[in-house]
Each structure stands twice: as structure tokens, then as C-alpha cells.
Design a protein that fits this description.
There is one protein chain. The chain has 205 residues and is of the alpha/beta class. The protein is built from eight helices and seven strands. The chain has one domain. It has a seven-stranded parallel β-sheet with strand order 1-2-3-4-5-7-6. The longest helix has 16 residues. It starts with 17 loop residues before the first strand and ends with a strand. The structure holds iron/sulfur cluster. Iron/sulfur cluster (SF4) binds next to α7.
Length: 205
């Protein structure tokens, strides 16, 4: 039987409705930097239900991308959330998925979408104003290789705000980046980083 995507309505961080997939959707650079250290890797280690959710959703997208998209559309039409978070676990993964993300944002203009990504080469084309894209930068002192500016094409760096984890003092915008307090429902700043001209900074959690 084909898998269907399983949407999470909220989590302990109050990120609101979200969809995740497994680490098979993360880019090659994640395997050198964050993949075994990020918060989602920890959640997956701690909870079988989270692991199952990620595996199921990776499979659902591979099995039938149209059914995957239709399930999300039905959810968004029925629930009308104010915000939506793509990939709390996993990443964009493919051009087809990225095109779907933009298509859905265009078709649901009242919903504010958010994604953190290291798939720098996939983030192309006109991005709808209600889809906030944040580049995920892995710094020093948090394990794995730290990223440098050479990892992120200049045209991409100039286009999107960044999320810093660890010591990213070599990057412009690190010193005055917003410090994440870990409660999205009370904060919501990441959805507006482009507007405010800020970046965001995470402690490894
Ligand atoms: S800065 Fe605010 S919106 Fe962004 S991840 Fe942290 S709590 Fe959530």
C-alpha cells in the first residue's frame, strides 16, 4: 500500500503545522556538517514515533508526489493555518519538491510558509513573498566540518537570510543576529527575517 504524508499539527517548540521527511532528503554538505548533531537527529534518536514519521513521509513523496501534494493541499484548505513550516526534519531534497513548495505558497497566499535549507543550488526562480527561505549555516564548535562562505554561492547568500548554529563569527550579520528563544508560537521572527534584514542564531539544542 502507498504511504501518505503525515502532518504534525504542532510540536513542543510551537512551530505550528509542519511536514518533515528523513535525512535522505538532506544535501551532501549535511553529511559533512550537521547530520548527526542537529536537533532533528536527536529527536529521531529519542523517539520512535518521530523516526517513523520521517521515514513514512520520505516514502510517501517517492511513492506518489501528486498524492503527497494533494494531501497537503487538503489539509491547508481545511485547517487554514496562519503559518506552515516545511522540513522540521530533512530538507528540500529535489527540484520537484522545491517547485511544489513554491506552487503551494502561490496557491495559499494567506498562509506564511517557512523553510530552513542547505540545498543552496535548488533555491532558484521567483520565490513567493509568503515563502520565507533561510539558509542554514553550520559553524565552529558544534561538531563536524564548519561551513565557509565558499560553501554558499554568492548569489544565494545575497538573496536569503541565514540561520547560524555554533560559532559563525566569520559571517557578516552574525553579531547582530536575532537569538532564538526556542518558542516559535510566541516569537515568529523567522517568518519576517527578510523584511527586518536580520539573521537568526541558534544554540545547539
Ligand atoms: S527565532 Fe523565533 S521563530 Fe525563529 S526558530 Fe527561534 S523561536 Fe522560532
Amino acid at each position: 500500500m502507498k504511504a501518505l504524508p503525515s502532518i504534525i499539527n504542532n510540536n513542543t517548540k510551537g512551530v505550528g503545522p509542519n511536514i518533515s521527511r528523513g535525512r535522505d532528503t538532506c544535501p551532501p554538505i549535511a553529511y559533512e556538517t550537521c547530520i548527526f548533531k542537529c536537533y532533528d537527529a536527536k529527536f529521531c534518536k529519542m523517539r520512535a514515533s518521530v523516526r517513523k514519521n520521517r521515514t513514512n513521509n520520505s516514502r510517501a513523496w517517492k511513492d506518489d508526489p501528486i498524492a503527497f501534494e494533494n494531501t497537503l493541499r487538503k489539509y491547508l484548505t481545511r485547517r487554514k493555518p496562519n503559518t506552515w513550516r516545511w522540513q522540521v526534519g530533512g530538507d528540500v531534497g529535489s527540484q520537484e519538491y522545491w517547485e511544489m513548495m513554491k506552487r503551494i505558497a502561490r496557491d495559499f497566499p494567506a498562509i506564511r510558509f517557512l523553510v530552513f535549507s542547505k540545498w543552496f543550488d535548488l533555491l532558484r526562480g521567483r520565490v513567493p513573498g509568503n515563502l520565507a527561505v533561510i539558509l542554514s549555516i553550520w559553524g565552529k564548535g558544534v561538531g563536524g566540518r564548519h561551513m565557509t562562505k565558499a560553501d554558499v554561492p554568492y548569489r544565494v547568500r545575497k538573496r536569503f537570510p541565514m540561520a547560524f548554529t555554533g560559532d559563525c563569527t566569520a559571517w557578516e550579520g552574525f553579531d547582530d543576529a536575532v537569538r532564538c528563544n526556542g518558542q516559535c508560537d510566541a516569537c515568529g521572527m523567522c517568518w519576517d527575517l527578510k523584511k527586518t534584514g536580520k539573521n537568526v542564531r541558534f544554540e545547539l539544542h
